[in-house]
Amino acid sequence: MIQYALLGIAASIIGTQDDALAKYVYPLAKPIASPAIKIDVSDFPESRAWAEKAKEVVAAWFPTVTSLLATEDWKAPKEINIVIKKEISAPAWASGNTITVSGKWITQHPDDLGMMVHEMTHLIQAYPRNKVNTGWLVEGIADYIRWWRYEPEAPRTRIDPVKNKYTDAYRVTAYWLAWVSRKYDKRLVPALDRELRKGNDPMPVFEKFTTKSAEELWKEFVASKP
Ligand SMILES: [Zn+2]
């Protein structure tokens, strides 16, 4: 009987250690299969080859991106539409289950398939309205997925310690999120995503996982000379 009791103690010690180690492991949700993807190049038929390649990227990465975010209770749309327009006022945008892409942009930047990963992340985020301003973080997470998960080999964006701020969105926020995740806790981004899915203020997540405010974490990041 003593052996069993000792085994029990050993198991509880290991259990405690597991929790202490959790911050070193990126938590993965169960991957969700890609919905059917339809492409529409009627406004810019020259883009068919690019659209087919974009469809491949989205189909291949959809399950991975759903596993990188807190999608446990999320229902994927039945279908994703990729629409190429001759010219729009941005390189691309995502709305509902549709990604609209500028034909002019992809003609000038045919290598920018990573843009599809950013836009697809928005489809998977599908956050409800938040009571605080979280636009910068929504874009930061989409760029984190793109630049630190899909193409982590890309050159790092330059951080200007005077002009930049963690609320700058896009690559600046993404770089900072990656740095904080690595230094403090790899569960950070999925935890932020989870709060955003509930429409909650995500800022307490920083304190919870690092004991520091976003402001303090930005100062530390800048001091590390990124
Ligand atoms: Zn975006």
Summarize the model shown.
It is built from 9 helices and 4 strands; from the N terminus they run H-E-H-E-E-E-H-H-H-H-H-H-H. It has 226 residues and is α/β, with parallel strands linked by helices.
Proportion of helical residues: 40-55%
Mass-distribution shape? globular
Structural class: alpha/beta
**Record field, number of beta strands:** 4
Give the strand line-up of the largest sheet.
Answer: 1-2-4-3
Terminal Cα span:
56 Å
Give the names of the bound compounds: zinc ion
Q: For the CA atoms, what is the radius of gyration?
A: 20 Å
Number of contiguous helices: 9
- Name the poorly predicted regions: 6-11
Provide mean pLDDT, rounded.
Answer: 93
Quaternary organisation of the protein chains = single chain
Q: What's the order of the H and E elements?
A: HEHEEEHHHHHHH
Major sheet size, sense and barrel closure: 4 strands, mixed
Beta-strand residue fraction? 5-15%
CATH class category label of the largest domain: Alpha Beta
Instruction: Return the CATH architecture of the largest domain.
Output: 2-Layer Sandwich
CATH names the topology of the largest domain as Zincin-like
Structure description:
- With 226 residues, the chain is an alpha/beta fold.
- It has two domains: 27-126, 2-Layer Sandwich (Zincin-like); 128-226, no CATH class.
- Helices cover 51% and strands 9% of the residues.
- The chain has helices at residues 2-21, 48-68, 103-108, 114-125, 135-150, 170-183, 188-197, 204-210, 214-223; strands at 36-40, 79-85, 92-95, 98-102.
- A four-stranded mixed β-sheet has the order 1-2-4-3.
- The chain binds zinc ion (ZN).
- Zinc ion is lined by residues 118, 122, 139, 142.
